[in-house]
Fold:
Amino acid sequence: MREELRRPGYLPPMPRTWWLRTGPYRRFAAREFTSLFVLAFTIVLLLFLLALSRGRDAYESFLGWLDSAGAMALFAAILAAGLYHTITWLRLSGHVQVVRLGHRTAPRDAVTAAMVAVWLVVSGAVAYVHIWA
Amino acid sequence: MAERRIELHVSRYRPDRAPTPYVESYEVPYDDDTVVLDALNAIKDETDGSLSFRWSCRMGVCGSCGMMVNGEPRLSCAAFLRDLAPGPVTVAPLRYFPVVRDLVVDMEDFLEKLREVRPWLIREDEARDEPGAHRQTPAQADAYRQFSMCINCMLCYSACPVYGQDPEFIGPAAIALAHRYDMDSRDQGRDERRAVLGRDVGVWACTFVGECSEVCPKNVDPAAAIQRSKLDLAMRGWRAVWPLGRRP
Structure:
């Protein structure tokens, strides 16, 4: 009976370029797209391990490539995209993580700020170990 | 002071006259208190009585008058023309829903999805309960209060490209309402709802665009409800295979 009562109506087709339609959609697409740079970094890391497993010459050759202008450009792009991806995800974390403070719930911005603080501290610690320690 | 006027480009769909929607322009007077819904009522009363749209309370409570205003899903009773001046203002039916006529969309799909998530208190031991109300502390009520503010206006569906691409997706408001009852200390129906939310077209279809929460006129935050439901389902799956953990 319900099917009989239903009117088909007009449903406009969804264009393939829907993600260009609004600012928020474009920012969402950018967030998802930048994950490919995270994948690129993972692949570079795997290639590094592969070179390491193949002996000294392969390792030295890989280090040489890391010094090239192309590799520098790639890592600059990976850094920029990785920062954008991380920051946009951390901004969403306040939606997901509920932090109870007694009978009250921490504001969403405070949760995001705490996540960013943890991220900066861990990144700083990793940088310290790699550069100065 | 001279009367202020603004142009509205209103989407019309009259299947008896044209197979696809078209746009008609109207010019209406407005002041600081005029909202888009007032303008549509003025058009219907004075210019074109055939214009069709839904509305009821005019005060952001009933959720009937959701439309696309300048491309954004909004309650037309809360969209002030003074903020949209000098115009023109485009008014169209809610995106991603089949249009029945002019600005009226078919809500049946949404209503079916609402029924699917069983948005009511489910009690396994109803027969054994003592007569009277189920007691609840203010703190327990606070756990779901935000998600109980939904007015079923469907703006979140019109903001959701996942629903636009896959109409089978249960969608933001229905999941938020399911989460509202899952978080209710009086409810015992979480397992029944998990069976619905855990499907491919349930919470896992959401890619966390987050626009559902941005357009919600009641700050329900459906995106939060969806992500927290994902967490609940993931933890339940994890506990089922983790040998040392507590089984649900």
In short: Chain A has two domains: 19-86, 97-133. Residues 94 and 108 of chain A are 4 Å apart (CA to CA). The longest strand of chain A covers residues 100-101.
